[in-house]
Amino acid sequence: MALPGIVSSPLARRRPIASRARAGRSRLTPYIFISPAMLLLIAFGVFPIAVAALVSLTDMNISGLGDWGNVKFIGIANYSKLFADPSFWQALGNTAFFAIIGVPSVVFLSLGVALLLNRSGNWFYRSLRAFYFIPAITAIVAISLVWGYLYNTQFGLLNWLLSLVGVDQVQWLSDPTLAKFSVALVAVWRGTGLNIIIFLAALQGVPNEYLEAASLDGAGEWRKIRSIVIPMLRFAIFFVTVTTVISWLQFFDEAYVLTGGGPLGATTSVSIFLYQQGFQQSQFGYASAGSLILFVLIAVITVAQLRARRADIEY
Amino acid sequence: MSTSLSALRQRSMKRRGRGLSVVIGIALAIGAVITAFPFIWMVATSIKPQAESLNYPPTLLPANPTLEYFHKLFVELDFGRYLGNTVIVVLIGGIGLILMAMAGYAFAKFDFRGKQWMFFLVLATMMIPVQVTMIPTYLILNGMKLTNTLVGIALPTLVSGFSIFLFRQFMSTIPTEMLEAARLDGAGEFRTFLQIVLPLSKPILAVQAVLTFIAGWNSFLWPLIIASDQKLYTLSVGLSLLNKEIAVNPSLQMAAASVMVIPILIVFIVFQRYVIQGFALSGLK
Predict the structure, then answer these.
(1) Most CB atoms closer than 10 Å: which of A236, A256, B221, B264?
(2) pLDDT given at position B71
(3) Is residue A66 part of a domain?
(4) Complex ipTM value
(5) What average pLDDT does range B13-17 have in this prediction?
Protein backbone atom coordinates (compact mmCIF):
# COMPACT_ATOMS: atom_id res chain seq x y z
CA MET A 1 0.00 0.00 0.00
CA ALA A 2 3.02 2.25 0.47
CA LEU A 3 4.23 1.26 -2.98
CA PRO A 4 2.83 4.14 -5.09
CA GLY A 5 4.38 6.60 -2.65
CA ILE A 6 7.81 5.12 -3.14
CA VAL A 7 7.51 4.84 -6.89
CA SER A 8 6.31 8.41 -7.42
CA SER A 9 8.99 10.43 -9.18
CA PRO A 10 9.58 14.12 -8.39
CA LEU A 11 7.56 14.87 -11.52
CA ALA A 12 4.57 12.85 -10.45
CA ARG A 13 4.63 14.43 -7.03
CA ARG A 14 4.10 17.83 -8.52
CA ARG A 15 0.79 16.74 -9.95
CA PRO A 16 -2.12 17.83 -7.75
CA ILE A 17 -3.99 14.53 -7.89
CA ALA A 18 -1.02 12.57 -6.67
CA SER A 19 -0.37 15.06 -3.91
CA ARG A 20 -3.97 14.89 -2.80
CA ALA A 21 -3.68 11.11 -2.63
CA ARG A 22 -0.54 11.50 -0.56
CA ALA A 23 -2.23 13.86 1.81
CA GLY A 24 -5.08 11.44 2.27
CA ARG A 25 -2.71 8.63 2.98
CA SER A 26 -0.65 10.64 5.42
CA ARG A 27 -3.81 11.57 7.31
CA LEU A 28 -4.34 7.86 7.81
CA THR A 29 -0.72 7.10 8.67
CA PRO A 30 -0.79 7.93 12.39
CA TYR A 31 -3.89 5.78 12.85
CA ILE A 32 -2.17 2.85 11.14
CA PHE A 33 0.77 3.27 13.48
CA ILE A 34 -1.20 3.49 16.70
CA SER A 35 -4.11 1.16 16.04
CA PRO A 36 -2.54 -2.24 16.85
CA ALA A 37 -1.23 -1.05 20.21
CA MET A 38 -4.36 0.97 20.99
CA LEU A 39 -6.66 -1.93 20.16
CA LEU A 40 -4.74 -4.22 22.50
CA LEU A 41 -4.65 -1.57 25.19
CA ILE A 42 -8.38 -1.01 24.93
CA ALA A 43 -9.16 -4.72 24.77
CA PHE A 44 -7.09 -5.64 27.82
CA GLY A 45 -6.82 -2.38 29.73
CA VAL A 46 -10.01 -0.36 29.33
CA PHE A 47 -12.73 -2.73 28.17
CA PRO A 48 -12.17 -5.16 31.10
CA ILE A 49 -13.21 -2.43 33.54
CA ALA A 50 -16.57 -2.15 31.87
CA VAL A 51 -16.85 -5.93 31.86
CA ALA A 52 -15.89 -6.07 35.54
CA ALA A 53 -18.53 -3.49 36.38
CA LEU A 54 -21.14 -5.48 34.48
CA VAL A 55 -20.11 -8.89 35.84
CA SER A 56 -20.06 -7.52 39.38
CA LEU A 57 -23.83 -7.07 39.11
CA THR A 58 -24.40 -10.73 38.21
CA ASP A 59 -24.00 -14.12 39.82
CA MET A 60 -21.48 -15.20 37.16
CA ASN A 61 -19.74 -18.43 38.14
CA ILE A 62 -18.37 -21.57 36.51
CA SER A 63 -21.72 -22.60 35.05
CA GLY A 64 -22.17 -19.12 33.62
CA LEU A 65 -18.78 -19.45 31.97
CA GLY A 66 -19.99 -22.33 29.81
CA ASP A 67 -23.40 -20.92 29.05
CA TRP A 68 -24.18 -17.21 29.41
CA GLY A 69 -27.84 -18.15 29.79
CA ASN A 70 -27.13 -19.27 33.34
CA VAL A 71 -26.02 -15.79 34.39
CA LYS A 72 -28.54 -13.79 36.38
CA PHE A 73 -28.58 -10.07 37.08
CA ILE A 74 -28.60 -9.64 40.86
CA GLY A 75 -28.08 -5.90 41.30
CA ILE A 76 -25.83 -4.83 44.12
CA ALA A 77 -26.20 -8.09 46.05
CA ASN A 78 -22.50 -8.90 45.56
CA TYR A 79 -21.50 -5.59 47.10
CA SER A 80 -23.72 -5.93 50.14
CA LYS A 81 -22.47 -9.50 50.61
CA LEU A 82 -18.88 -8.25 50.43
CA PHE A 83 -19.37 -5.65 53.11
CA ALA A 84 -20.86 -8.31 55.35
CA ASP A 85 -18.04 -10.76 54.67
CA PRO A 86 -15.56 -10.84 57.58
CA SER A 87 -12.84 -12.36 55.41
CA PHE A 88 -13.07 -9.39 53.03
CA TRP A 89 -12.60 -7.04 55.99
CA GLN A 90 -9.70 -9.15 57.18
CA ALA A 91 -8.15 -8.89 53.72
CA LEU A 92 -8.63 -5.11 53.72
CA GLY A 93 -7.03 -4.88 57.16
CA ASN A 94 -4.10 -7.03 56.08
CA THR A 95 -3.59 -4.89 52.99
CA ALA A 96 -3.57 -1.74 55.10
CA PHE A 97 -1.07 -3.39 57.45
CA PHE A 98 1.21 -4.37 54.56
CA ALA A 99 1.03 -0.88 53.05
CA ILE A 100 1.75 0.81 56.38
CA ILE A 101 4.89 -1.21 57.06
CA GLY A 102 5.91 -1.70 53.46
CA VAL A 103 5.74 1.77 51.92
CA PRO A 104 7.94 3.67 54.40
CA SER A 105 10.45 0.81 54.56
CA VAL A 106 10.81 0.62 50.81
CA VAL A 107 11.00 4.38 50.25
CA PHE A 108 13.54 5.07 53.04
CA LEU A 109 15.70 2.04 52.33
CA SER A 110 15.91 2.65 48.61
CA LEU A 111 16.56 6.36 49.01
CA GLY A 112 19.24 5.69 51.62
CA VAL A 113 21.01 3.03 49.58
CA ALA A 114 20.81 5.17 46.43
CA LEU A 115 22.37 8.16 48.22
CA LEU A 116 25.17 6.00 49.54
CA LEU A 117 25.76 4.30 46.19
CA ASN A 118 25.87 7.69 44.53
CA ARG A 119 28.68 8.92 46.77
CA SER A 120 31.38 7.68 44.51
CA GLY A 121 31.55 6.80 40.85
CA ASN A 122 34.51 4.44 41.15
CA TRP A 123 34.40 0.87 39.89
CA PHE A 124 33.84 -0.61 43.34
CA TYR A 125 30.70 1.42 44.01
CA ARG A 126 29.50 0.80 40.46
CA SER A 127 29.87 -2.95 40.70
CA LEU A 128 28.01 -2.98 44.02
CA ARG A 129 24.93 -1.51 42.35
CA ALA A 130 24.07 -4.70 40.49
CA PHE A 131 23.77 -6.63 43.76
CA TYR A 132 21.04 -4.35 45.01
CA PHE A 133 19.10 -4.63 41.76
CA ILE A 134 19.09 -8.41 41.61
CA PRO A 135 16.02 -8.99 43.81
CA ALA A 136 13.95 -6.62 41.67
CA ILE A 137 14.60 -8.33 38.35
CA THR A 138 14.37 -11.98 39.32
CA ALA A 139 11.22 -14.05 39.18
CA ILE A 140 9.05 -13.79 42.23
CA VAL A 141 8.30 -17.50 42.17
CA ALA A 142 11.98 -18.36 42.36
CA ILE A 143 12.52 -15.76 45.07
CA SER A 144 9.67 -17.05 47.18
CA LEU A 145 10.94 -20.62 46.99
CA VAL A 146 14.37 -19.53 48.13
CA TRP A 147 12.92 -17.56 51.03
CA GLY A 148 10.59 -20.42 51.89
CA TYR A 149 13.67 -22.59 52.25
CA LEU A 150 15.47 -19.97 54.36
CA TYR A 151 12.38 -19.59 56.57
CA ASN A 152 11.82 -23.35 56.96
CA THR A 153 11.26 -24.17 60.61
CA GLN A 154 13.19 -27.43 60.78
CA PHE A 155 16.15 -27.03 58.44
CA GLY A 156 16.03 -23.37 57.38
CA LEU A 157 19.13 -21.28 57.59
CA LEU A 158 17.53 -18.47 59.59
CA ASN A 159 16.50 -20.72 62.46
CA TRP A 160 19.92 -22.29 62.48
CA LEU A 161 21.56 -18.86 62.73
CA LEU A 162 19.22 -17.96 65.57
CA SER A 163 19.95 -21.24 67.33
CA LEU A 164 23.59 -20.21 67.43
CA VAL A 165 22.64 -17.36 69.75
CA GLY A 166 20.29 -19.58 71.73
CA VAL A 167 16.92 -18.65 70.24
CA ASP A 168 14.33 -21.43 69.95
CA GLN A 169 12.75 -22.47 66.66
CA VAL A 170 10.83 -19.58 65.16
CA GLN A 171 7.62 -20.28 63.21
CA TRP A 172 8.37 -17.77 60.45
CA LEU A 173 5.46 -18.64 58.22
CA SER A 174 3.04 -20.53 60.45
CA ASP A 175 2.61 -18.04 63.27
CA PRO A 176 -0.21 -15.71 62.13
CA THR A 177 1.41 -12.50 63.38
CA LEU A 178 4.97 -13.32 62.43
CA ALA A 179 3.93 -14.59 58.99
CA LYS A 180 2.76 -11.07 58.10
CA PHE A 181 6.19 -9.67 58.86
CA SER A 182 8.03 -12.53 57.15
CA VAL A 183 6.06 -12.07 53.96
CA ALA A 184 6.41 -8.28 54.09
CA LEU A 185 10.17 -8.58 54.59
CA VAL A 186 10.52 -10.48 51.31
CA ALA A 187 8.44 -7.87 49.52
CA VAL A 188 10.51 -5.02 50.97
CA TRP A 189 13.72 -6.76 50.00
CA ARG A 190 12.37 -7.21 46.49
CA GLY A 191 10.77 -3.78 46.21
CA THR A 192 13.85 -1.67 46.85
CA GLY A 193 15.84 -2.57 43.71
CA LEU A 194 13.73 -0.83 41.09
CA ASN A 195 13.37 2.26 43.28
CA ILE A 196 17.12 2.41 43.82
CA ILE A 197 17.47 2.50 40.03
CA ILE A 198 14.94 5.33 39.80
CA PHE A 199 16.67 7.33 42.56
CA LEU A 200 20.09 6.78 41.00
CA ALA A 201 18.77 8.03 37.66
CA ALA A 202 17.30 11.07 39.40
CA LEU A 203 20.54 11.73 41.28
CA GLN A 204 22.32 12.10 37.94
CA GLY A 205 20.23 15.21 37.47
CA VAL A 206 21.57 17.01 40.56
CA PRO A 207 24.13 19.53 39.25
CA ASN A 208 27.59 19.07 40.72
CA GLU A 209 28.15 22.83 40.85
CA TYR A 210 25.54 23.19 43.59
CA LEU A 211 27.26 20.60 45.74
CA GLU A 212 30.69 22.11 45.14
CA ALA A 213 29.43 25.56 46.00
CA ALA A 214 27.95 24.21 49.20
CA SER A 215 31.23 22.50 50.12
CA LEU A 216 33.08 25.77 49.59
CA ASP A 217 30.66 27.40 51.98
CA GLY A 218 31.62 24.75 54.50
CA ALA A 219 28.49 22.60 54.33
CA GLY A 220 29.00 19.05 55.60
CA GLU A 221 27.82 15.88 53.90
CA TRP A 222 24.59 15.59 55.84
CA ARG A 223 23.76 19.24 55.33
CA LYS A 224 24.28 18.98 51.58
CA ILE A 225 22.02 15.95 51.36
CA ARG A 226 19.31 17.57 53.44
CA SER A 227 19.36 21.01 51.88
CA ILE A 228 20.26 20.34 48.26
CA VAL A 229 19.91 16.72 47.21
CA ILE A 230 16.62 15.82 48.88
CA PRO A 231 14.78 18.94 47.67
CA MET A 232 16.02 18.29 44.14
CA LEU A 233 14.80 14.71 44.34
CA ARG A 234 11.31 15.75 45.35
CA PHE A 235 9.68 14.59 42.16
CA ALA A 236 11.46 11.23 42.22
CA ILE A 237 10.52 10.70 45.87
CA PHE A 238 6.93 11.55 45.07
CA PHE A 239 6.87 9.22 42.06
CA VAL A 240 8.41 6.36 44.03
CA THR A 241 5.97 6.88 46.89
CA VAL A 242 2.91 6.86 44.64
CA THR A 243 3.99 3.76 42.71
CA THR A 244 5.04 1.99 45.91
CA VAL A 245 1.68 2.69 47.53
CA ILE A 246 -0.10 1.30 44.48
CA SER A 247 2.04 -1.81 44.42
CA TRP A 248 1.46 -2.53 48.13
CA LEU A 249 -2.26 -2.07 47.73
CA GLN A 250 -2.04 -4.72 45.01
CA PHE A 251 0.17 -6.97 47.15
CA PHE A 252 -0.09 -10.52 45.81
CA ASP A 253 2.92 -12.51 44.64
CA GLU A 254 5.00 -13.00 47.78
CA ALA A 255 2.08 -14.02 49.94
CA TYR A 256 0.61 -16.23 47.23
CA VAL A 257 3.74 -18.32 46.85
CA LEU A 258 5.05 -18.24 50.44
CA THR A 259 1.89 -18.79 52.44
CA GLY A 260 -1.00 -18.95 49.97
CA GLY A 261 -2.69 -16.34 52.17
CA GLY A 262 -2.49 -18.37 55.37
CA PRO A 263 -2.14 -19.18 58.18
CA LEU A 264 -5.81 -18.53 58.96
CA GLY A 265 -5.97 -15.78 56.39
CA ALA A 266 -3.29 -13.77 58.20
CA THR A 267 -1.49 -12.91 54.96
CA THR A 268 -4.54 -12.77 52.69
CA SER A 269 -4.38 -9.38 50.99
CA VAL A 270 -7.31 -8.08 48.97
CA SER A 271 -5.68 -9.33 45.78
CA ILE A 272 -5.28 -12.82 47.21
CA PHE A 273 -8.87 -12.73 48.41
CA LEU A 274 -9.97 -11.79 44.88
CA TYR A 275 -7.89 -14.54 43.36
CA GLN A 276 -9.32 -17.12 45.75
CA GLN A 277 -12.90 -16.02 45.16
CA GLY A 278 -12.47 -15.65 41.42
CA PHE A 279 -10.25 -18.49 40.32
CA GLN A 280 -10.36 -21.04 43.10
CA GLN A 281 -14.06 -20.80 43.81
CA SER A 282 -15.11 -19.43 40.39
CA GLN A 283 -17.29 -16.73 41.96
CA PHE A 284 -16.53 -14.31 39.11
CA GLY A 285 -19.34 -11.90 39.94
CA TYR A 286 -18.43 -11.69 43.60
CA ALA A 287 -14.72 -11.28 42.89
CA SER A 288 -15.40 -8.60 40.25
CA ALA A 289 -17.31 -6.57 42.82
CA GLY A 290 -14.33 -6.83 45.16
CA SER A 291 -11.92 -5.84 42.41
CA LEU A 292 -13.91 -2.71 41.66
CA ILE A 293 -13.78 -1.74 45.33
CA LEU A 294 -10.01 -2.22 45.26
CA PHE A 295 -9.82 -0.13 42.09
CA VAL A 296 -11.79 2.72 43.63
CA LEU A 297 -9.66 2.52 46.76
CA ILE A 298 -6.43 2.75 44.76
CA ALA A 299 -7.79 5.56 42.60
CA VAL A 300 -8.93 7.60 45.63
CA ILE A 301 -5.62 7.17 47.44
CA THR A 302 -3.61 8.02 44.32
CA VAL A 303 -5.68 11.10 43.52
CA ALA A 304 -5.38 12.23 47.14
CA GLN A 305 -1.59 12.03 46.86
CA LEU A 306 -1.59 13.95 43.58
CA ARG A 307 -3.76 16.64 45.17
CA ALA A 308 -1.50 16.89 48.18
CA ARG A 309 1.47 17.39 45.92
CA ARG A 310 -0.26 20.08 43.90
CA ALA A 311 -1.05 22.00 47.07
CA ASP A 312 2.58 21.58 48.06
CA ILE A 313 3.83 23.14 44.82
CA GLU A 314 1.47 26.10 44.93
CA TYR A 315 2.67 27.02 48.35
CA MET B 1 47.28 33.46 54.85
CA SER B 2 43.55 32.96 54.90
CA THR B 3 43.65 31.28 51.48
CA SER B 4 46.19 28.72 52.61
CA LEU B 5 44.09 28.11 55.71
CA SER B 6 40.99 27.39 53.70
CA ALA B 7 43.04 25.24 51.33
CA LEU B 8 44.25 23.31 54.34
CA ARG B 9 40.76 22.92 55.67
CA GLN B 10 39.60 21.73 52.29
CA ARG B 11 42.38 19.19 52.08
CA SER B 12 41.58 17.81 55.52
CA MET B 13 37.91 17.66 54.57
CA LYS B 14 38.83 15.79 51.43
CA ARG B 15 40.87 13.30 53.43
CA ARG B 16 38.01 12.83 55.86
CA GLY B 17 35.70 12.42 52.86
CA ARG B 18 37.87 9.67 51.50
CA GLY B 19 37.88 7.87 54.85
CA LEU B 20 34.10 8.12 54.93
CA SER B 21 33.91 6.75 51.40
CA VAL B 22 35.84 3.68 52.48
CA VAL B 23 33.59 3.12 55.50
CA ILE B 24 30.44 3.56 53.41
CA GLY B 25 31.95 1.33 50.74
CA ILE B 26 32.42 -1.44 53.30
CA ALA B 27 28.89 -0.98 54.67
CA LEU B 28 27.47 -1.08 51.14
CA ALA B 29 29.47 -4.20 50.36
CA ILE B 30 28.04 -5.94 53.44
CA GLY B 31 24.56 -4.81 52.44
CA ALA B 32 25.16 -6.10 48.92
CA VAL B 33 26.20 -9.52 50.18
CA ILE B 34 23.16 -9.71 52.47
CA THR B 35 20.89 -8.66 49.61
CA ALA B 36 22.36 -11.17 47.23
CA PHE B 37 22.70 -13.90 49.84
CA PRO B 38 19.44 -15.73 49.07
CA PHE B 39 20.72 -16.22 45.52
CA ILE B 40 24.10 -17.47 46.67
CA TRP B 41 22.24 -19.88 48.94
CA MET B 42 20.02 -20.93 46.05
CA VAL B 43 22.91 -21.80 43.74
CA ALA B 44 24.85 -23.53 46.51
CA THR B 45 21.85 -25.67 47.46
CA SER B 46 21.02 -26.54 43.86
CA ILE B 47 24.21 -28.57 43.57
CA LYS B 48 24.00 -30.23 46.99
CA PRO B 49 22.73 -33.79 47.22
CA GLN B 50 19.25 -33.96 48.71
CA ALA B 51 20.45 -35.38 52.02
CA GLU B 52 22.88 -32.53 52.45
CA SER B 53 20.36 -29.79 51.73
CA LEU B 54 18.11 -31.23 54.48
CA ASN B 55 21.04 -31.39 56.86
CA TYR B 56 20.99 -29.60 60.15
CA PRO B 57 23.15 -27.63 60.75
CA PRO B 58 23.25 -26.48 57.13
CA THR B 59 26.48 -26.30 55.18
CA LEU B 60 27.23 -23.30 53.02
CA LEU B 61 29.39 -24.97 50.42
CA PRO B 62 28.33 -28.33 49.04
CA ALA B 63 30.59 -31.16 50.17
CA ASN B 64 29.72 -33.37 47.20
CA PRO B 65 28.50 -31.12 44.40
CA THR B 66 26.16 -32.78 41.91
CA LEU B 67 24.23 -31.71 38.83
CA GLU B 68 21.73 -34.52 39.38
CA TYR B 69 18.79 -32.18 40.00
CA PHE B 70 19.29 -30.15 36.87
CA HIS B 71 19.33 -33.41 34.98
CA LYS B 72 16.16 -34.51 36.76
CA LEU B 73 14.38 -31.23 35.96
CA PHE B 74 14.92 -31.57 32.25
CA VAL B 75 14.68 -35.32 31.87
CA GLU B 76 12.00 -36.37 34.34
CA LEU B 77 10.07 -33.17 34.96
CA ASP B 78 9.51 -31.60 31.55
CA PHE B 79 11.28 -28.35 32.39
CA GLY B 80 12.66 -28.38 28.84
CA ARG B 81 9.12 -27.85 27.58
CA TYR B 82 8.44 -25.14 30.17
CA LEU B 83 11.63 -23.40 29.09
CA GLY B 84 10.53 -23.58 25.44
CA ASN B 85 7.11 -22.13 26.32
CA THR B 86 8.73 -19.33 28.28
CA VAL B 87 10.96 -18.46 25.32
CA ILE B 88 7.92 -18.37 23.01
CA VAL B 89 6.07 -16.05 25.41
CA VAL B 90 9.12 -13.77 25.53
CA LEU B 91 9.35 -13.75 21.72
CA ILE B 92 5.67 -12.83 21.37
CA GLY B 93 6.48 -9.99 23.75
CA GLY B 94 9.00 -8.80 21.14
CA ILE B 95 6.14 -8.21 18.69
CA GLY B 96 4.46 -6.09 21.35
CA LEU B 97 7.65 -4.06 21.58
CA ILE B 98 7.44 -3.11 17.88
CA LEU B 99 3.73 -2.25 18.21
CA MET B 100 4.46 0.01 21.17
CA ALA B 101 7.33 1.70 19.31
CA MET B 102 4.96 2.39 16.42
CA ALA B 103 2.35 3.88 18.71
CA GLY B 104 4.96 5.95 20.53
CA TYR B 105 6.19 7.28 17.19
CA ALA B 106 2.71 8.30 16.08
CA PHE B 107 2.08 10.09 19.38
CA ALA B 108 5.43 11.85 19.17
CA LYS B 109 5.55 12.91 15.53
CA PHE B 110 2.05 13.18 14.09
CA ASP B 111 -0.91 15.44 14.66
CA PHE B 112 -4.20 13.71 14.30
CA ARG B 113 -7.74 13.91 15.52
CA GLY B 114 -8.29 12.15 18.83
CA LYS B 115 -4.61 12.24 19.76
CA GLN B 116 -5.26 14.02 23.05
CA TRP B 117 -7.78 11.64 24.50
CA MET B 118 -6.06 8.56 23.15
CA PHE B 119 -2.86 9.57 24.89
CA PHE B 120 -4.82 10.24 28.04
CA LEU B 121 -6.20 6.71 27.72
CA VAL B 122 -2.66 5.35 27.45
CA LEU B 123 -1.68 7.13 30.65
CA ALA B 124 -4.86 6.09 32.44
CA THR B 125 -4.23 2.40 31.83
CA MET B 126 -1.04 2.74 33.85
CA MET B 127 -3.12 3.22 36.98
CA ILE B 128 -5.44 0.26 36.58
CA PRO B 129 -4.49 -2.58 38.89
CA VAL B 130 -4.16 -6.00 37.32
CA GLN B 131 -6.59 -7.49 39.83
CA VAL B 132 -9.40 -5.45 38.34
CA THR B 133 -8.73 -6.61 34.80
CA MET B 134 -7.79 -10.14 35.84
CA ILE B 135 -11.26 -11.70 35.81
CA PRO B 136 -12.77 -9.81 32.86
CA THR B 137 -9.63 -10.42 30.81
CA TYR B 138 -9.97 -14.10 31.57
CA LEU B 139 -13.59 -13.96 30.46
CA ILE B 140 -12.64 -12.07 27.29
CA LEU B 141 -9.86 -14.52 26.43
CA ASN B 142 -12.22 -17.37 27.17
CA GLY B 143 -14.74 -15.82 24.80
CA MET B 144 -12.02 -15.55 22.13
CA LYS B 145 -11.16 -19.23 22.75
CA LEU B 146 -7.63 -18.18 23.68
CA THR B 147 -7.48 -19.71 27.15
CA ASN B 148 -4.98 -22.51 27.22
CA THR B 149 -2.83 -21.05 24.44
CA LEU B 150 0.56 -19.39 24.58
CA VAL B 151 -0.83 -16.41 22.65
CA GLY B 152 -3.47 -16.04 25.36
CA ILE B 153 -0.74 -15.98 28.00
CA ALA B 154 1.19 -13.24 26.20
CA LEU B 155 -1.72 -11.13 24.98
CA PRO B 156 -2.89 -9.35 28.17
CA THR B 157 0.55 -7.85 28.82
CA LEU B 158 1.62 -7.42 25.20
CA VAL B 159 1.39 -3.63 25.27
CA SER B 160 1.73 -1.38 28.29
CA GLY B 161 0.88 2.26 28.69
CA PHE B 162 4.16 2.94 30.46
CA SER B 163 6.23 1.66 27.55
CA ILE B 164 4.25 3.63 24.97
CA PHE B 165 4.80 6.69 27.15
CA LEU B 166 8.57 6.08 27.30
CA PHE B 167 8.76 5.60 23.53
CA ARG B 168 6.85 8.81 22.95
CA GLN B 169 9.09 10.75 25.33
CA PHE B 170 12.20 9.59 23.56
CA MET B 171 10.94 9.85 20.00
CA SER B 172 9.77 13.43 20.38
CA THR B 173 13.48 14.34 20.56
CA ILE B 174 14.10 13.04 17.00
CA PRO B 175 14.47 16.08 14.71
CA THR B 176 11.44 16.39 12.43
CA GLU B 177 13.69 17.62 9.60
CA MET B 178 15.24 14.17 9.33
CA LEU B 179 11.84 12.62 8.80
CA GLU B 180 10.92 15.31 6.26
CA ALA B 181 14.15 14.70 4.39
CA ALA B 182 13.44 10.99 4.19
CA ARG B 183 9.93 11.67 2.88
CA LEU B 184 11.26 14.11 0.28
CA ASP B 185 13.61 11.37 -0.87
CA GLY B 186 10.51 9.35 -1.53
CA ALA B 187 10.64 6.98 1.41
CA GLY B 188 7.24 5.64 2.46
CA GLU B 189 6.03 6.07 6.02
CA PHE B 190 6.94 2.55 7.06
CA ARG B 191 10.36 2.81 5.51
CA THR B 192 10.96 6.08 7.33
CA PHE B 193 9.96 4.35 10.54
CA LEU B 194 12.13 1.29 9.98
CA GLN B 195 15.21 2.98 8.54
CA ILE B 196 15.27 6.35 10.30
CA VAL B 197 13.18 6.29 13.46
CA LEU B 198 14.08 2.86 14.82
CA PRO B 199 17.86 3.22 14.38
CA LEU B 200 17.73 6.63 16.06
CA SER B 201 15.77 5.13 18.95
CA LYS B 202 18.30 2.45 19.81
CA PRO B 203 18.84 3.56 23.42
CA ILE B 204 15.15 3.38 24.32
CA LEU B 205 14.70 0.18 22.31
CA ALA B 206 17.49 -1.43 24.30
CA VAL B 207 15.88 -0.45 27.61
CA GLN B 208 12.48 -1.64 26.53
CA ALA B 209 13.85 -4.87 25.12
CA VAL B 210 15.54 -5.67 28.42
CA LEU B 211 12.46 -4.75 30.46
CA THR B 212 10.15 -6.69 28.13
CA PHE B 213 12.40 -9.71 28.30
CA ILE B 214 12.51 -9.61 32.09
CA ALA B 215 8.75 -9.10 32.39
CA GLY B 216 7.93 -11.89 29.95
CA TRP B 217 10.38 -14.32 31.44
CA ASN B 218 9.19 -13.72 35.00
CA SER B 219 5.48 -13.38 34.36
CA PHE B 220 3.50 -15.57 36.68
CA LEU B 221 -0.10 -14.45 37.07
CA TRP B 222 -1.22 -14.88 33.44
CA PRO B 223 0.47 -18.21 32.81
CA LEU B 224 -1.05 -19.39 36.10
CA ILE B 225 -4.55 -18.30 35.11
CA ILE B 226 -4.54 -19.06 31.38
CA ALA B 227 -2.60 -22.32 31.17
CA SER B 228 -4.51 -25.22 32.63
CA ASP B 229 -2.90 -27.76 30.34
CA GLN B 230 0.47 -28.85 31.65
CA LYS B 231 1.89 -28.73 28.10
CA LEU B 232 1.57 -24.93 28.21
CA TYR B 233 3.17 -24.27 31.57
CA THR B 234 5.92 -21.71 31.65
CA LEU B 235 8.93 -21.95 33.93
CA SER B 236 7.29 -19.85 36.61
CA VAL B 237 4.21 -22.06 36.83
CA GLY B 238 6.28 -25.25 36.75
CA LEU B 239 8.40 -23.81 39.52
CA SER B 240 5.44 -22.85 41.69
CA LEU B 241 4.22 -26.45 41.51
CA LEU B 242 7.47 -27.54 43.12
CA ASN B 243 6.44 -25.54 46.16
CA LYS B 244 4.85 -28.65 47.61
CA GLU B 245 8.19 -30.39 47.55
CA ILE B 246 9.73 -28.06 50.13
CA ALA B 247 9.88 -30.60 52.93
CA VAL B 248 11.13 -33.29 50.59
CA ASN B 249 13.71 -31.94 48.24
CA PRO B 250 15.06 -28.40 48.53
CA SER B 251 17.90 -29.23 46.14
CA LEU B 252 15.49 -29.87 43.31
CA GLN B 253 13.59 -26.67 44.07
CA MET B 254 16.70 -24.57 44.18
CA ALA B 255 17.93 -26.10 40.92
CA ALA B 256 14.64 -25.10 39.28
CA ALA B 257 14.85 -21.61 40.79
CA SER B 258 18.37 -21.29 39.41
CA VAL B 259 17.16 -22.21 35.93
CA MET B 260 14.76 -19.26 36.16
CA VAL B 261 17.06 -16.75 37.78
CA ILE B 262 20.45 -17.23 36.12
CA PRO B 263 19.46 -16.24 32.54
CA ILE B 264 17.89 -13.03 33.86
CA LEU B 265 21.00 -12.22 35.86
CA ILE B 266 23.16 -12.62 32.77
CA VAL B 267 20.87 -10.42 30.67
CA PHE B 268 20.76 -7.80 33.39
CA ILE B 269 24.48 -7.70 34.07
CA VAL B 270 25.20 -7.33 30.35
CA PHE B 271 22.59 -4.58 29.81
CA GLN B 272 22.58 -2.91 33.22
CA ARG B 273 23.85 0.35 31.80
CA TYR B 274 20.84 0.66 29.48
CA VAL B 275 18.29 0.07 32.20
CA ILE B 276 19.56 2.91 34.38
CA GLN B 277 19.92 5.13 31.33
CA GLY B 278 16.37 4.35 30.34
CA PHE B 279 14.97 5.64 33.58
CA ALA B 280 17.12 8.73 33.27
CA LEU B 281 15.77 9.23 29.75
CA SER B 282 12.19 8.98 30.90
CA GLY B 283 12.72 12.35 32.52
CA LEU B 284 12.46 11.17 36.13
CA LYS B 285 14.79 13.84 37.38
Answers:
(1) A256
(2) 86
(3) no
(4) 0.81
(5) 62
